């Protein structure tokens, strides 16, 4: 009589194969059992396998948690057959006869598919086969079947086209498939959302479970090897009895989750595969011989139709992401910078991660704004600032700068990020001079009740640039000593002029260097070295200012 082979997967134990060649084989928690499983769910003497004439019999020995054969708890001895699945607590035991070779190291190689209880088909061919009906494959089309199925396809296409969300698309697909293939118990839609070849579980459903049940919310129950083969090779796969197919050896999800039948097809539009439609069942999908693939052709046809809807959803998703990014970034960046960021793609977690960059930081502050505010109404101040900010930002964005923030009546902007700009210092100086010249023109036009003057300061160096904040509020900003020095530098700037540090002066060309003269060396709060400062001479002062031994303590 043929001996048994038991392939065992148990929580906390490596997968192993045990040969049953004796008349009685006891499974339990005690060490003296033929198979000892030290698990709390296993009784001391849990179950027994024994020979009876020409058959093998499984018997429960009064265990607390029961013995299950093919997911049914046994109450009396049952005959064991090839491919049966025994469950004891968290242990899964696959039954095969010894003349069936199981190689634990067997992988799902390409040349091993297509025989036994697993079949592969070209997805496009299967679509045509299903339209003709099983009788028409390789023969004359079965006209009535073809007409009925074509009408069904038209109805499905209409519903998919009108679905407004990916959830609605999957819900429709689920209903159709579960109705036509009642043997399937679970269904999953896996999509290559980011276009990097990595499938992500988007939606899943089960016949007997509510939507979003924890048992199907993760992809742990899905055979990744099957999905990858289907996805990469554009083939449709059907395995009617995966438990007894040695090519699934080592697939934890197949044995531990009790999967018996598998259907998987690619979602593709003849040019690009966007995902996989995957379904499985605890029972064999088809007991008939020879192995037929009419249900696989139907599954593949639905996958083909679904691909168009998924493509539409992916495109809509990308457009929405781009719109969100553009809406966020256009408040801070020039249109050219926004375009560059959009072309890069979606931001991780919706954020620009902080990074170190070489930048030039600019502060532009209205001189004596407090007295002006005290003499005007709140609405007049708001109007003044709106016009002022609008006019000044033209200079910032014209040079590809980034607005950091408005600080009261002060503009804080920087150059060199998020896109690197080798000439960031030149751009910052050009912006500063553009602001001062534009303000002179506006004052001549009497835009405001009284003339406005600016102080502008620029510093260059390293800083951290990126999104900083909480989950509720995030600001794209720059941080570091370079920024702090620029803020302090602005407070010593003469009205209507621009001051820069030596770092900025050394980074600009002769054309811009000629605009500046040395102002002196000064010490600033929080900085332990003297800083050489330069200033413009747009408005002549009676005598040069000296910063020697000067303490600037404003923040």
Walk me through the structure.
The chain has helices at 123-132, 143-162, 166-180, 214-217, 224-233, 252-256, 294-329, 335-344, 369-374, 378-398, 424-444, 481-490, 502-507, 510-513; strands at 4-10, 16-20, 24-28, 35-36, 47-52, 55-60, 68-69, 72-73, 78-79, 85-88, 91-97, 118-122, 186-191, 200-206, 235-239, 261-268, 273-281, 355-366, 402-407, 410-415, 454-469, 474-479, 497-501, 516-524, 531-536, 551-552. The protein has 14 helices and 26 strands. Mean pLDDT is 77; it is low at 100-116, 134-141, 287-291 and 542-555. The chain is an alpha+beta fold and 555 residues long. A hairpin with a 4-residue loop joins strand 21 and strand 22. Strands 18, 19, 20, 21, 22, 23, 24, 25 and 26 form a 9-stranded mixed sheet that branches. The chain has a 6-stranded antiparallel sheet with strand order 2-1-11-10-7-8. A 6-stranded antiparallel sheet has the order 12-15-16-17-13-14, sandwiched between helices.
Features of the shown structure:
disordered C terminus; 14 helices; 28% strand; 9-stranded mixed sheet; 555 residues; alpha+beta
Summarize the entry for a quick read.
This protein is of the alpha+beta class and 555 residues long. The chain has 14 helices and 26 strands. The longest helix has 36 residues, at 294-329.
């Amino acid at each position: 009589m043929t001996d048994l082979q038991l392939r065992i997967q148990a929580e906390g134990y490596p997968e192993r194969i045990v040969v049953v060649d004796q008349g009685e084989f006891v499974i339990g928690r005690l060490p003296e059992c033929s198979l000892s499983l030290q698990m709390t769910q296993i009784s001391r003497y849990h179950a027994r396998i024994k020979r009876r004439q020409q058959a093998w019999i499984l018997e429960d020995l009064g265990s607390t948690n029961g013995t299950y054969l093919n997911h049914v708890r046994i109450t009396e001895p049952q005959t064991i057959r090839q491919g049966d699945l025994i469950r004891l607590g968290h242990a899964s035991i696959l039954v095969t006869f010894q003349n069936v070779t199981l190689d634990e190291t067997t992988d799902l190689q390409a040349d091993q598919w297509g025989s036994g209880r697993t079949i592969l088909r070209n997805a496009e061919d299967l679509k045509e086969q299903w339209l003709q009906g099983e009788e028409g494959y390789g023969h004359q089309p079965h006209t009535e079947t073809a007409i009925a199925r074509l009408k069904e396809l038209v109805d499905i296409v209409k519903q998919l086209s009108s679905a407004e969300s990916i959830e609605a698309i999957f819900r429709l697909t689920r209903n159709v498939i579960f109705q036509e293939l009642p043997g399937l118990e679970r269904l999953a839609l896996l999509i290559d959302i980011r276009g990097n070849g990595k499938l992500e579980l988007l939606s899943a459903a089960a016949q007997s479970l509510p939507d979003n049940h924890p048992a199907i919310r993760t992809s742990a129950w899905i055979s990744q090897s099957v999905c990858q083969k289907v996805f990469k090779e554009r083939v449709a796969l059907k395995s009617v009895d995966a438990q007894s197919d040695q090519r699934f050896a080592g697939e934890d999800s197949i044995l531990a989750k009790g999967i018996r039948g598998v259907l998987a097809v690619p979602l593709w539009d003849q040019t690009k595969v966007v995902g996989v439609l995957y379904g499985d069942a605890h029972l064999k999908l088809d007991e008939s011989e020879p192995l037929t693939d009419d249900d696989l052709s139907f599954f593949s046809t639905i996958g083909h139709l679904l691909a168009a809807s998924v493509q539409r959803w992916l495109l809509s998703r990308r457009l929405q992401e781009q719109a969100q990014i553009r809406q966020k970034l256009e408040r801070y960046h020039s249109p050219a910078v926004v375009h560059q960021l959009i072309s890069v793609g979606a931001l991780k977690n919706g954020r620009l991660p902080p990074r170190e960059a070489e930048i030039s930081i600019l502060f532009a502050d209205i001189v004596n704004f407090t007295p002006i505010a005290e003499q005007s109404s709140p609405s007049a101040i708001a109007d003044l600032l709106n016009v002022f900010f609008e006019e000044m930002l033209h200079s910032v964005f014209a040079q590809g700068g980034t607005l950091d923030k408005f600080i009261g009546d002060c503009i804080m902007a920087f150059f060199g990020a998020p896109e690197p700009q080798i000439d960031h210092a030149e751009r910052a100086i050009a912006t500063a001079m553009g602001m001062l010249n534009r303000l002179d023109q506006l004052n001549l036009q009497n835009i405001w009740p009284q003339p406005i003057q600016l102080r502008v300061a620029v510093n260059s160096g390293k800083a951290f640039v990126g999104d900083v904040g909480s989950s509720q509020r995030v600001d794209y900003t720059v941080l570091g000593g370079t920024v702090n020095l620029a803020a302090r530098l602005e407070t010593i700037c003469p009205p209507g002029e621009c001051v820069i540090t030596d770092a900025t002066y050394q980074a600009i060309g002769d054309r811009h260097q000629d605009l500046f003269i040395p102002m002196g060396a000064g010490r600033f709060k929080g900085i332990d070295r003297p800083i050489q400062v330069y200033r413009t001479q747009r408005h002549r002062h009676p005598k040069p200012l000296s910063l020697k031994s000067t303490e600037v303590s404003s923040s």
